[in-house]
What we know:
about 240 residues, alpha/beta, D-Maltodextrin-Binding Protein, domain 2, 2 domains, three-stranded parallel beta sheet, 10 helices, 8 strands, about 15% strand, globular, disordered N terminus, signal, Nitrate ABC transporter substrate-binding protein, SsuA/THI5
Amino acid sequence: xxxxxxxxxxxxxxxxxxxxxxxxxxxxxxxxxxxxxxxxxxxxxxxxxxxxxxxxxxxxxxxxxxxxxxxxxxxxxxxxxxxxxxxxxxxxxxxxxxxxxxxxxxxxxxxxxxxxxxxxxxxxxxxxxxxxxxxxxxxxxxxxxxxxxxxxxxxxxxxxxxxxxxxxxxxxxxxxxxxxxxxxxxxxxxxxxxxxxxxxxxxxxxxxxxxxxxxxxxxxxxxxxxxxxxxxxxxxxxxxx
Length: 241
């Protein structure tokens, strides 16, 4: 477990604010997801959408955001959601916190040229099953119900991993059917649905599955490794995610 001290948290917050400064400069010329004539470039308001994030709360509570807005002349309208991809694709956000591997699909759907700014964290989802399930890998879950919160994000990474490791199709693609029964549900309810037996496995975040992991009703496959851990092992042995 990693402990983030107040000093380190402050450094992360400053780095986050620096990224926003770059974003603001970019928005003036091309916009993140839109041309220079976009609404954000015209009125100095940046619509920033991201998943609920304690670092952002810290920056807001300690005045980092207010100071940044005073220094730059920009104001930030925030929206906290687990569906950043959908809001951006629908034209309701100028900047989002999203995975870099989602960008090609995002540009294809929106027909907009985007800009990637920095790195914030790594993809941390795990494959969870019920504690009494004998499955050892996703290969043992063929034809069973896999809960996901989206068909992009971590699902894209696991799709590539499963194809490489087991020759399976996690999601249907063209004429290739899925080898599992995909069930889309709210990200915060996936591990609960799993524990109750309404799905057989899930692509879940450990922090949102803490209760079920703590009470022992669910467990992680692949020795508890995240998609980022497995990707590093398969693509770059010896590298750390």
